[in-house]
Amino acid sequence: MVVAAPLAFLNFHGPAGPPWQFLVVILVIIIGPFLAERVRLPGIIGLLAGGMIIGPHVLAIIPASDTTFNALGNFGLLYLMFLAGLELDLEMFRRNRTAAITFALLTFTLPMLGGTFGGLSLGFTVPAALLLGSLLASHTLVTYPTARRYGLAGNVAVTTSVGATVITDTLSLSVLAGVSGATTGDATGIGLVAQLAVGLGLLAVWCFVVLPRIGRWFFRSMGQERTLRFVFVLATFLSGAVLAEMMGIDGIVGAFFAGLGLNRQVPNAGALMDRIGFFGSALFIPLFLVSVGFIIDPAVMVQAHTLGYAGVFLLACLGGKAIAAGLTRPLFHFSWDEVLMVYGLSTAQAAATLAATIVGFQIGLFGETVVNAVLWLIVVSLVVASLATNRAARRMEPAAESADQLGRTIVLPLLQLDRLTAVARIASRVATADGGVVVPVRVSVDADSDHRDDEKLIARASAEMSKIGMDVDVVFRVDTSIESGIAHACRSEKASLLLLDAEPADPAGLTRAAELVFGTMAEQIAAVSPVPVVLLRASETLVDHVMLPLSSRDLGGSDRSTALALELLTRLRRTGLNATVLAPAKTAVTPMLARQHAIEIVEGDPTPERTRSMAREGTLVILPARPGRVAAGLDAERLGAMPGVSVAVVMVAGAGLSVAGSIDQSMKLVVGRSESAPAAQLAAANGL
Amino acid sequence: MSSLRRGVVLLAGAVLASACSGSSSGASGRFTPATPDTLTVAAAIPAPGFWEGTDAADVDGGFEFGLAHALADELNLDQVVVVAAPLVELLDGKLPPGADLALSQVTITTEREKHADFSAPYFMVNRGVVVRRGTSVPDLKTAKGLTWGALTDGTNLAFLKSDVRPNHEPRGFPSLEAVIAAVEDGTVQAGLMDLPNALARTNGSSTLTVPAQFASRDQYGAMLPNHSKNTEAVSTAIRGFAADGTLEDLEDRWLVPAFGREPSTIPVIPMRSS
Fold first, then answer.
1. pTM surpassing 0.80?
2. Is residue A510 part of a domain?
3. A230, B34, B69, B177: which one has the fewest Cβ atoms less than 10 Å from its Cβ?
4. Helices and strands (H and E) in chain A: how many
5. ipTM of the predicted structure?
């Protein structure tokens, strides 16, 4: 007072208004997770608690009448569900679908039944009880990073749990769609079912058919600017949400479906996903979580009534999930550690649960007591899931790197740009099939240069790849040699495949690039490459057909390059290309192409002549390279000379050592263009 | 069984028993009426558009009338009893004895939340300017030059003082009818009240009009006694009415005809002086 009185003329007043409220919310976003993690709780708890403290029930910095943060929270909720759809690993689901579907049905059904009966026993209405069951049946992969950190991403228990998430979340949101449709719409009975079926059908068409096509078109045409791509993504999930609401389905279902629809086009390790994740983690999702905190009333949270509800929810959820996880032992012969891992991964209740709860709250099915009880459930389930996953992960052996991840990270050296578009298209297809990314790498050996030429080349390459819809960050390295630079890039980027452009820039003679591929440098790259290598001679004609000739020796041997060639073929088939295997007998190939029914198998001797007669404009011929045999080289040479035909020679990791060991001058030439070796000599060497 | 395990089991049992016993409230919260099977609603009447009628005994329609009946239905109560109450008392957070809640265009404010509980909002409003025909209020500068009147203890009088800051001290009146009368007889040049009230009270008037509005996006909520255990059930029901279109239907049925014009067509006065 002594100080204030003389300063009264300054007319200062306390902090108020939107800037003050935004400042406080942002401070919660910064400090909340930090403090929570200091006491070994998930960051989400810090955001919820922070929201509670500044919300109307404690400090009331954000009053109950606030509409701004309510709207931002709703946007964050849609963003969260979109991200959930986008991040789900569809490839992991595809690979392990039988176990994933079985486990998904178990881990959905048991808590769903428990939650529904639990809700009914507490006096919930049928829609409220069904919604409760569905939100307990979903789960969020909060502890998946723990499994990854322990090198268990490829473990069958982990892939089963991750794959199951696709189903459980979709089923949960379908129940939500039905319940919210019944609660907020006028339709009942068969009319409601019909409305939902038509609504979900139209939504599915929009999200899984139309949006991916629009996305592909946009990324290739208008959306070459990164900012535009991000804004486009916002538009896509909002369109899904708006369409869902027009159909009487909650917007989060549309946002989730939009995420699933764009899942392949926005790979998890890509630059666009990085930006989407950044904005989500930095702002939109924390805003949602803080806005949920506003609902928390500490007085309500510790009431016996709320604790009682939480007890029922915990019993239904953790109990149902435990039984489902336990059943994986007799069904899939999982070890107890794997059972514990499955339980840890499928128990955590966070995003999906919170989203469905908030929708239930917004449409008047749930009151504050249920929301506060669900928050208890979330806190306890996160702690239980975290303990279970950590305990299981410490006891389990890391999984061996799976060959199934061929397209996860494709390193594409930028040697020369003449055929970059054609090469990048194929690289992009292989990556898309695995939900992976293409990482272009430029290596310079001139440490003293200002690298302006490299910068220009990188800019040009980025622009060219943008034009075909790719979103890439070029890696630039200065190294002692190009081959070691590429090898180091493969390691630092954790590459799954090295794809080299094998086309000479100048048809009249071998350039640096051609030398790299065909000459001693190719041997050195192959020798030091820690990952499989594809030497690609891409035609400018768009590839629409892929062909793999396999001899009896290919089929009978244990050579990994044959298996890799098949891996490459199946990936390209999955991206919509027609695929043909030319082999002496169907029966020899069929076991190797399990579940790949859409691949045509042509019986016949895969001679070079037969291969050439079957190749046409737009065909990509895959040839396995093998030590001690130079057939691929000659085939590549002749096939590559055909107009519109592309050729990919597949080599296993480190094959260069063994290939190089048997390589003589003629071998070097037959891998690419022969300028000196007589064709007859080469043919004889091939045994053809 | 260890003592810890036994303790956990007992605690879980107690918690579950607590959840399953007593007056089960389901998912949406419990509502215990002051009078059995009756929803007793306090309101300041008349309130054209919101309560159609001259006093509590003869009200037979209106937005808040319809909302009261929808609430009674949702809360499984057999009847609605309306109790008249002076608006200024309701704005002070005072409910008549025996009333479960008030539905009387009460704006939710932080200050009022200290004395009463509010449900989830059921209506969003701006502030309407009432003047004699021929007077225009295109901007803040013109507004500052007018003499103003508003309801005593209402948020509009506070808004005039803190945000509009007219050259002459604004005057407070005990009722909305008194504000209207003061504008009509020239005691003040302009009256400020919630836009729905401004529109409903000038609809069909040959002397008064609503030429402008201030964008405040205030919210009306049902007012309940402080720390009422019924608030959760009322809020849940109102959120349900917002989601299933009940509120929109009530608005179309009662407020649109009472207003006589679409609120969004009324110019908004920018709050920054040019």
1. no
2. yes
3. B177
4. 33, 10
5. 0.77
